[in-house]
Structures are given as structure tokens and as C-alpha cells.
Amino acid sequence: MRLDMPKKGQIIRVKRQPQRTCVGCKQVEGKRTLIRVVRRPDGIVEVDPTGRKAGRGAYVHQSLDCIEQAIASNALSRSLKANIGEEVISELRNLASSEDSEET
Ligand SMILES: [Zn+2]
């Protein structure tokens, strides 16, 4: 068995999964469980299901509770420093309701 010994001064991180804060409930989560909303360099805000679009991103759980909270508190627009269009809001709601199969 081979042991990978840490080099002097090297910081070992067990998990490298990026952590992001949901703008709705403020919980920190792994990126995969969150929907990314991006403000593109041209100022247009859109939902980014791939998480790869260029621009400033904000994250919200794929749950109606978090999405409604993020919209109601303006957390999403504050985080992105942009207005969130109706299409973006309805797209988020659609995403949440289509995937939210678990009853809580
Ligand atoms: Zn949340």
C-alpha cells in the first residue's frame, strides 16, 4: 500500500467541491445542488443550468421555497446587482416545480 505523504506546508483538503451560498435560505451547499443564475457581461440576467456561462453568478436551491424567498427579499437582484426579469423568475419556478418531486 502506497501512502501519499503530504509535503511540508501543503494543505490537505478532503473535498474540493465548490461551496456556494443559496441566496434564498443562505445555506452553504455544494454547487451541484444549486441553480446558477448569471448576469452576463452584457448585463442580461439568465438562468444558467450548465453553470458555465461567463458572468457574475448567484446560486439558489432548486426549491420553490428558496426561489420565492430569494425573489421576495430581492436577494437575487442584490447579489447580481441587476434586475431580475419576469422570464428568469418564471424559468426558476419551472425548474423548481419540475424537479421538486420530494414531498417535504
Ligand atoms: Zn436554499
SSE map:
Elements: E1 19-21, E2 28-30, E3 34-39, E4 45-48, E5 56-61, H1 64-72, H2 75-80, H3 86-99
Antiparallel strand pairs: 1-2, 3-4, 3-5
Helix pairs in contact: 1-3
The structure holds zinc ion.
In short:
28% of the residues lie in helices and 21% in strands. It has 104 residues and is an alpha+beta fold. Strand 1 and strand 2 form a beta hairpin.
Note the main attributes of this structure:
single chain; 104 residues; alpha+beta; Hypothetical Cytosolic Protein, Chain: A; 3-stranded antiparallel sheet; two-stranded antiparallel ribbon; elongated; binds zinc ion
- The CATH superfamily appears as YlxR-like
> Judging from the principal axes of the Cα atoms, what is the shape?
elongated
Give the bound compounds: zinc ion
Q: Which percent band covers the strand fraction?
A: 15-25%
Query: Poorly predicted ranges (pLDDT <50, ≥5 residues)?
Result: none
Instruction: Calculate the mean pLDDT score and round it.
Output: 87
Total DSSP helices: 3
Which CATH architecture would you pick? 2-Layer Sandwich
Written as H for each helix and E for each strand, in order along the chain, the element string is: EEEEEHHH
How many angstroms does the end-to-end distance come to?
45 Å
CATH topology: Hypothetical Cytosolic Protein, Chain: A
Which structural class fits the helix and strand makeup?
alpha+beta
**Widest sheet, order of strands:** 4-3-5
CATH class category: Alpha Beta
Q: Please give the radius of gyration in angstroms.
A: 17 Å
